[in-house]
Design a protein that fits this description.
Blueprint lengths: L5 E3 L6 H20 L8 H5 L1 E6 L14 E6 L1 H10 L4 H9 L4 E5 L8 E3 L5 E6 L1 H20 L8 E8 L6 E7 L10 E5 L20 E3 H6 L8 H20 L6 E8 L8 H7 L25 H17 L34 E4 L5 E11 L5 H15 L10 H14 L4 H13 L1
Parallel strand pairs: 9-10
Antiparallel strand pairs: 1-4, 2-3, 3-7, 4-5, 5-6, 6-8, 7-8, 9-11, 11-13, 12-13
Helix pairs in contact: 1-4, 7-11
The structure holds adenosine-5'-triphosphate (ATP) and calcium ion (2 copies).
Adenosine-5'-triphosphate binds next to strand 8 and strand 9.
Length: 438
């Protein structure tokens, strides 16, 4: 599970970087929140960048900080608007990212060398990104924003901020703030990162023993014969949104993204309580209520009746057609959880079942798993890096199977794969039977 990380404290090598990131975010986000938003964003908002110098003494603009550093804030008005579109509470966002300078670092899980940090409450992720990705995000920001405007239920990564830090004589570090797809209050029993390719898409099963919560890949998924178990209603919602999202990615010539899938098994529930153990590391002083390690035990999701589920599915469908978020209060029919979570996010379709999207049967009645789904790592532009890689890899491998294919076929392959593994349990059983017969 991704939440297992290393606590970033004063002794951690990246303590200064983490401290500076959070100090900069706190300052710039408060500054932006304090301003009155204009009715409409202008082109200038998308291009905006503001630079601040922090030092030990402080100055008329910035408060004093522990270290000397420079901080750059990009398109703050746009990101404020995005946070609002994604239903974040401004105060909550600030609290999570800055109430104490404690993060956990996931190190660098991918090959890219990016670092991941979780906010202390695990709601948000800071990902350091390459300069090329940074430039690219700025270039596509308007398209992304327009897409979110038209598709509030987008499956694409939710970006909440884009910033840069630099210490004297140090290098520039660009980073984004994103949502942690996996909610802090639920155990995620399995995680998959799916691209729709088979080459190199296998996590060594032997290594699972060492790291039972590792992120698995396409071949591991197929080997397990898993499915995204959605009946017709939810399947349609999911496909419709994914197709829209992927068509944006194709248009912007993006590739190398994946569908991140977290699976919460309702039968297993939260018994394993891995998080409790992890969070104990995060109890520095305990002077605020959220410092209490949440207790994962004894939480229930009330199983909605068939009628309720049908009504809800209908609501969801109407909402996605009108591209309107679900009105508060109507989208949920479950017991309140004791644990803190981003409840406002539940207004969004794919976050509406306890932060995720619950499995359904062929008759659209609820199933046994909650899926947490998002298209992640979508800042790789084909033109910049991948053409070279394509050339080199193309020499040795089957052209169709290598992952750096151009954005159009990449998107097609991605959609085909994800749609191919989306089946209600009944459908999956039927297909397995047919396959056995023939
Ligand atoms: P590479 O380019 O080598 O694929 P990367 O450094 O760009 O790697 P990502 O692909 O963005 O990294 O993410 C790596 C892993 O981190 C994912 O497979 C997933 O396990 C975790 N992760 C990324 N984004 C999120 C998110 N929003 N919520 C939860 N986990 C995430
Ligand atoms: Ca990736
Ligand atoms: Ca990447």
């Amino acid at each position: 599970r991704v939440v297992v990380g290393t606590k970033v404290d004063q002794n951690h090598v990246n303590w200064v970087t983490a401290y500076n990131m959070l100090t900069g975010i706190r300052f710039t986000v408060s500054r932006t929140n304090a301003k009155i938003a204009r009715a409409e964003l202008t082109d200038a908002d998308f291009e905006a960048k503001h630079k601040f110098s922090f030092d030990i003494t402080g100055n008329e603009l910035t408060p004093s900080a522990k270290y000397d550093f420079k901080f750059k804030d990009y398109a703050p008005g746009v990101f404020r608007d995005l946070r609002q579109k994604f239903r974040l509470d401004p105060a909550d966002y600030l609290m999570s990212l800055t109430s104490k300078y404690i993060l956990s670092e996931l190190g660098s899980p991918g090959k890219s060398g990016s670092f991941f940090y979780f906010s202390r409450d695990y709601k948000y992720i800071i990902k350091t990104i390459h300069h090329a990705e940074h430039k690219f995000l700025r270039r596509i920001l308007k398209d992304y924003w327009l897409h979110v405007q038209d598709n509030p239920n987008t499956l694409l990564s939710q970006f909440y901020g884009l910033h840069r830090v630099k210490i004297p004589y140090g290098r520039k570090i660009h980073f984004v703030v994103m949502n942690n797809l996996f909610p802090p209050h639920r155990d995620i029993h399995q995680t998959f990162d799916l691209k729709g390719s088979t080459i190199g898409r296998d996590f060594k099963e032997e290594d699972l023993e060492k790291n039972p919560r590792a992120t698995l890949k396409d071949l591991n998924w197929l080997r397990r014969e898993k499915h995204l178990e959605f009946g017709p209603e939810k399947k349609n919602l999911f496909f419709e949104q994914m197709e829209r999202d992927v068509s944006l990615l194709q248009k912007l010539k993006i590739m190398d993204y994946s569908m991140l899938v977290g699976v919460h098994d309702l039968q297993k529930g939260n018994q394993e309580n891995l998080r409790d153990k992890t969070l104990q590391v995060f109890q520095p002083g305990g002077d605020s209520p959220s410092d209490e390690a949440p207790d994962g035990r004894g939480m229930l999701i009330r199983t909605p009746s068939k009628l309720e589920s049908a009504r809800k599915a209908r609501e969801l469908r109407q909402i996605i057609k009108q591209e309107k978020p679900i009105p508060m209060g109507q989208s949920s029919s479950r017991m309140p959880d004791t644990m803190e979570e981003n409840t406002a996010k539940r207004e969004l379709v794919f976050y509406s079942d306890d932060g995720g999207f619950r499995a359904t049967h062929e008759d659209n009645s609820p199933g046994d798993e909650i899926f947490f789904l998002s298209i992640i790592d979508c800042l790789t532009h084909y033109g910049t890096v991948k053409k070279l890689e394509h050339f080199w890899k193309g020499l040795s491998n089957d052209k169709k199977q290598i992952s750096p294919i151009s954005p159009e076929p990449y998107g097609e392959r991605f959609i085909n794969f994800i749609e191919g593994i989306t089946k209600s349990p009944e459908e999956a059983a039927r297909d397995a039977q047919n396959a056995a017969r023939s």
